[in-house]
Amino acid sequence: ITRFPLIPVRGVPLMNHIANNWDSIWAFRPDPSDLLIATYPKAGTTWTQEIVDLLLHNGDAEACKRAPTPVRSPFLEIFSPPPIPSGLDLLEKMDPPRVIKTHLPFQLVPPGFWENKCKAIYVARNAKDNLVSYYYFDLMNQTQPEPGPFDGYIHKFMQGDLSWGSWYDHVKGYWLEREKRNILYLFYEDMKENPRREVERIMRYLDLSVSDEVISQIVELTSFKNMKENPMANYSCVPSPVFDQSISPFMRKGEVGDWKNHFTPEQSKLFDEDYEKQMKDIDIPFRTLI
Ligand code: A3P
């Protein structure tokens, strides 16, 4: 397994299997029934995928298991040993409605999604927890660049020098387009606070109607504890040379505020000062920086 260097695409550092397939990714023609789940990595992608999948299958976990690939929603995101395919081939084999996951920032999402008026769910997570989660992920994912010491990683995060680029640009890009493109913009912290409310919000956005009982079942099946045990969700399907979960499990902690166990007061102060600058032009209601 090689930790390949990132390759910039229009200024955004991407993993090489994405950058090397860029022309076909940009030209991708989605079906109008396709649903996009977009996130900055480690913001709650898998959680949201699991909720959506269960909603589409009326809470039937067995039906979800019959999905065509163990790593669901493969768009641009296949973790197989190199050469890593882009996921486009697998998409062709999926039946509609396809749920397509991506970490691309808004400006790099293939324009066909918006031309076809596809629905899109974006999940954002507060910067500091997102950073900590990404740090552990980069330690365990042997195809990502080495994260190095935590202090240096904070600087890389602030500079957008990580795969998929800047967190700040990412959360802003989708926020600014959410009304025009009818994007459902969710927050990880809201999902933690009241998962039922957020599951119902997703249900309404998808024009689905499931019973209260099924909603309860979905909330239960998508609890951190249950997803940690679920091979459909915990990425145990990815071979250990790629994801070394002995270093850090994919389902690591699932908490709000874990950054407090990692940032020193000095690091936190520096980060907050930079955050103010980077976010001064926008008011996205993140609730949990402190
Ligand atoms: P931590 O590293 O903070 O534990 P993604 O799916 O975007 O890669 O995000 C992974 C992060 O979401 C991890 O965060 C993981 O534990 C957390 N997560 C996954 N499922 C969750 C759930 N059901 N409840 C809470 N957090 C969850």
UniProtKB/TrEMBL annotation:
GO terms for molecular function: sulfotransferase activity. It comes from Oreochromis aureus (Israeli tilapia). It is found in: Cytoplasm. It holds the Pfam family Sulfotransfer_1. Residues 32-282 form the Sulfotransferase domain. GO terms for cellular component: cytoplasm. The keyword Cytoplasm applies. Its EC number is 2.8.2.-. Transmembrane segments: none annotated. This is Sulfotransferase. Keywords: Catecholamine metabolism, Cytoplasm, Transferase. Coiled coil: none annotated. Belongs to the sulfotransferase 1 family. One of its GO terms (biological process) is catecholamine metabolic process.
